What does this fold into?
Amino acid sequence: MWEPTNNLERDRLDKLTRLRETGVVPYPNRADRTHTTRAAIEAFEAVEPNDPEAAEAVEVTVCGRIVRQNLKGKIYFAHIEDGAGRVQLFVRINNVGDETFDIIKNMLDLGDFVQASGNMMRTRTGEVSVLVRELVVLSKALSPLPVIKERVGEDGQTERYGEFSDIEERYRQRYADLAVNPDTREVFRRRARIISTMRRFLEGEDFLEVETPILQPIYGGAAARPFVTHHNQLHQDLFLRISFELYLKRLLVGMYDAVYEIGRDFRNEGVSFKHNPEFTQVEFYRAYADYHDMMDITERMVATIAEEVLGTTTIAFEGHTINLAPPWHRISLRDAIKQHAEIDYVEYPEAGALYQAMHDSGIEASPNATWGKLVDVLLGTVVEPTLIQPTFITDYPRDISPFAKMVPGDEMHVERYEMFIGGMEMGNAFTELNDPLDQEARFVEMNRLYADEDDEATPVDEDYLRAMRYGMPPCGGCGIGVDRLVMLLTGKSTIREVLLYPHLRER
It folds into this structure.
């Protein structure tokens, strides 16, 4: 049984007991709301300009959490909030009676949920309010929310501060963070709008939304270490998916021309400002398309999302002004590394030679890394931080791109791009390999190259190869990290700010 840990909780628990003793049900089964707070105000304001008396006859029942209260003798003012907004309650003792007013005076606290019925009005100070004739307790809060302080800013707007002194505590208690911080609530409303706009865009491009397995007998489609679980009845180890890719491309074999999925992937790797073990991704694949087509779709989709959600394609992020409008800059990986690191990796076709060139330039890397991994280090450490404006880095080495077609006439590079915005990698795309024999050889080669690197291993998926042998149409595909896109469009510098429940270490 829960026990109070401080005087405030003990006082609230005592008030709960007294409520029950007076016959009040502090957690009733249902509410009788007729209007949200916003709808109540809008109903009043729709009538008031033409007929003020009729406006004050507008009857409402609103519900919400008490976020501010003030008792002045026989008058009680409170602000309640619901998901739609905030409205003031104006309560006179002669309107609600002595018994209800005693409850208000002695048993209500900030954080409690109440239901108020009455007529709309405008107070002498000009605030639209509910003149309450009946007040019902809906939920007694036993623990006080983190302290909320308010002040009026220079622009005359009410500002809140002091919600949490420890930012990690906000993540651990996201429910409290949401309850007291409207800015946090807005981030996740915006996240929802970003995803819904993304879905509408793809459907407008004739992509079919599908669902693929989260539990997979073989993981694949990315270079990442998986989470492993076990199915007891089947006596079978399974993997939480690291990508949708191979299952989505199977559907192209099955004669869907364009498919997409928005969902969770899971990677058993490091946690950082841009990594979480579970994350949301969108992947979309189109038959008879290549990576140039994917670039076109990608830049149009991101620009459309920004325009619809923010009203502009020009955003501020980490002190930079970024223009998301197409066309985006395009540069090959080789040229980008030559430009920023002054190393032409083509001139160093062996890992040892490339490592030495990087070492001589002061670029740190593992001396045991494969050649492809060293190229990836050059990209991540030297090039990526400079890519603030939207940029497609194209044509990657074959060694680190097992699912992409070769660049015609170039045995070293494949038709692959990664997209970067704000100094972050946001997505990855290919002209997809559809030659089953080449794909099988790539699987074998990747296993040989990265036999000692769990996060780079690419298991041979025999069922995927069988699907390819039935005939896979030429196609292009792209995957984009939704969480990072939300970071970009909400101006947040860490992925934890855009995940409702980010993964945290144990206390």
Observations:
- The chain has two domains: 7-144, 185-328+389-498.
- The domain at 185-328+389-498 is CATH 3.30.930.10 (BirA Bifunctional Protein; domain 2).
